[in-house]
Amino acid sequence: MDAKHVVELVYWRDLQRTGICFGASLFLLLSLSACSIVSVLAYISLALLSVTISFRIYKGIVQAVQKSEDGHPFKMYLEQDIAISSDVVHKYSELALGRFNTAVKELRRLFLVEDLVDSLKFAVLMWILTYIGALFNGLTLIIIAHVAVFTWPVVYEKHQVQIDHYYGLVNNQVKDVIAKIKAKIPGAKPKSE
């Protein structure tokens, strides 16, 4: 799935596809909040097996009554090649390795205080995350993010002018506050852009 398909999915261009994707993934996340992952996987597997076994038995009975030789009802899916090629694995593992190395370098820079202001920003972010962590568990945050991913693009698309206006106002205020803080911190050098 490329970026174009993801954009079409979160902007609800195909209502049926997006609805199925959003509903199934939200159901999975809500199930995980109530049960362990082992239980959720077992229940989903049992439900899927119940449907496929029932369908296979139904088709077998229909074939016996009609005396037809349609064959296995899932033959088309059984013959599909579902193996992942080594090229695809190498491509995505190299991509993941590159992102991992970038993240490690950035964390090293932040924790070893290469730039005091950036390390202080990171410390404030971690401090805020301690409060968020006290209010929500990780799965709740994932559910909130999931709902936001499927709702925010549509809301932004419909109210872009107002959102951009207020975002500009807030952004200017934040820049002013950061400039005042940087001016008061001794040894904080302004970044060259």
Automatic annotation (TrEMBL):
Chain segments annotated as coiled-coil in the UniProt record: none
InterPro entries named among the record's database cross-references: Reticulon (IPR003388), RTN1-4 (IPR046964)
TM ranges: 20-46, 124-150
Topological relation to the membrane, as annotated: Multi-pass membrane protein
* Pfam families noted in UniProt: Reticulon (PF02453)
Provide the Gene Ontology terms for cellular component.
Answer: endoplasmic reticulum membrane; neuron projection; postsynaptic density
Q: Where mainly found?
A: endoplasmic reticulum
Key words of the record: Endoplasmic reticulum, Membrane, Transmembrane, Transmembrane helix
* Alphabetized PROSITE patterns for the sequence: PROKAR_LIPOPROTEIN, RETICULON
On whether Endoplasmic reticulum is a keyword of this UniProt record, the answer is yes
The subcellular localization recorded is: Endoplasmic reticulum membrane
One GO term under biological process is: brain development
Signal peptide as annotated in the record = none
Domain Reticulon positions: 6-193
What is the protein name given in its UniProt record?
Answer: Reticulon
Species: Pygocentrus nattereri (Red-bellied piranha)
Q: Lineage, please?
A: Eukaryota, Metazoa, Chordata, Craniata, Vertebrata
